[in-house]
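Hi P.,

Sorry for the delay on this. The queue was packed all week, but I finally got your sequence through. Input first:
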Amino acid sequence: MDRRNFLVLSTASATAAAITNSATAIEPFDRPSPGVLRGSLAAYSMRKYLTMPKGQAKSMDLFGFVDYCKQLGLSGTELTSYYFPEGADTDYVLRLRRHCHLAGMTVSGGAIRNDFCSQDSGKVAADIAHTKKWIDLYALLGTPVIRIFAGNQPKGEELSRTLARCAKHCQTVCDYAADKGVMLGLENHGGVTARAEGLLEIVHQVDSPALGINFDSGNFRVEDPYAELEKIAKYAINAQIKVEVYREGKKVPSDLPRVASILKDAGYSGWVALEYEAAEDPHDAIPGWTRELLKVLA
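Then the structure:
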């Protein structure tokens, strides 16, 4: 073998080794058994009341949402970033934290919008800054996990390049989150995470104790969504439960006992937040679904 071919093959071998090593960066979590599943409610469920057209007063704010969760008999409340007032600062967050504590409520998780797959470096830089800002605020609130997104594959780009770029940006924000004592849960939210394979490929390329998966029971739009959920459950650090799933392109009622069993069989222990998105008015539907959720989590 001549020197040129040796160098080419050596470089290729080193690259392959790096990919192999990164592919085992995060393993399924090893947790004590049995797991304990605790009920929460995502603020997104009450989006109809937490947002109003400009000029109209909202009928609910996050303080009221916390109280609503308590009235439902829950001990957890998931406070989505979309419903914080514009310019929410340290003072607001500390008042909200005090309110949660006095109500006996735990902030089970947070959620933000972001896109780490974009080829637009300026947009990604803004999303990284946005993520770090919310890591700071949620850490101050005492939130253990923040839900983040991956994004969509840019047109014409190889999927492997998109996933690698997304993983690089996830690594950046996870390094920041780890120093704040917060974990980031990458959600199966369509785009490059529309299947378990794409989601896990990103997770496997990130080497951080701050990363895991935000298990969303209603987001896989495939023939058998439950089989996909089984593949990601062992990596879950937060779970959101929807009352409907997609099977073969059709929206059908979710098998909540089956979803709970998938989490339990994976050894998951932690919060399970109802994220209500169905057509019936949330005020009418959520109390019944909450009772059903708590029953299957027991």
